[in-house]
Amino acid sequence: MRALLFIAALALSAGPALAGPVTLRANPVDDDGRVTLGDIFDGAGAASGVVVASRAGPSVVFEAGQLQALAARSGLQWANPQNLRRVVVRHALLASGAPAATATPAGTTMRPAAVAGATAAVLTYARNIAAGDVIQPEDVVWTDVQSHLATGGGPSDAEEVVGLSARRALRAGAVVGARDLARPQVIARNDTVQVAFASGGVTLTVTGRAQRGAAVGEVVAITNLTSGRTIEAVASGPGRAVAGPEAQAARSSQFAAVR
Hints:
It is built from 4 helices and 21 strands. It starts with a helix and ends with a helix. By secondary structure, the protein is of the alpha+beta class. The strands form 7 sheets. Strands 3, 7, 9, 10, 11 and 12 form a 6-stranded mixed beta sheet that branches. Strands 16-17-19-20-21 form a 5-stranded mixed β-barrel. A two-stranded parallel sheet has the order 1-8. The protein folds into 2 domains: 17-182, Type Iii Antifreeze Protein Isoform Hplc 12, CATH 3.90.1210.10; 185-258, SH3 type barrels (Roll), CATH 2.30.30. This is Flagella basal body P-ring formation protein FlgA.
């Protein structure tokens, strides 16, 4: 009997991890700007109140794979039997029975077409982001906002911001701006750095101290701990930099990646 009670207690304490399969609502809506798993799925159970996005405009657009991952974090399994690519959650007052999900080419993360009228689709933060946090795919969602809030020069593809780090604290629902994010630093000021010089098949490595922080591909001044001389190198990874011919190649490849 004690064993049975213990197993039952474990099952109850597991909470949403045992919630199991869920079904996408026919027309997902929210009425307060806080989009929850219960707004999106039937059968969400104890995970119904989990907030997965903030809606700043008439709707929030999720990539289907992103939505599956968010559901799985709370123990929910959505099989996506219709093979949808995007799911739209609209303001309850504006839904009017419009279709909730639309099929788009597999793998696309591009900006959805702007809604007719005085709104535009922009990339917004799905949660509060702390300074230094690295942006993950589930951290950004497409949202329809009033056109005057759609600042020029914003990203046209979610892939442009995934992997970047926040320069400052960012609020859920805010429009993603180019000045919000930067490539994550792999070298911090005063870090000990191994600098590799490679030329003609010969590589020489020296140890130095970084004079400032740098992301991959950025130039950083390194003071040689043995000679005291300061050289310019290019950050190539955590605690690593290159100088000489490889430095220019590292910068060129980084510029190509940014474009």
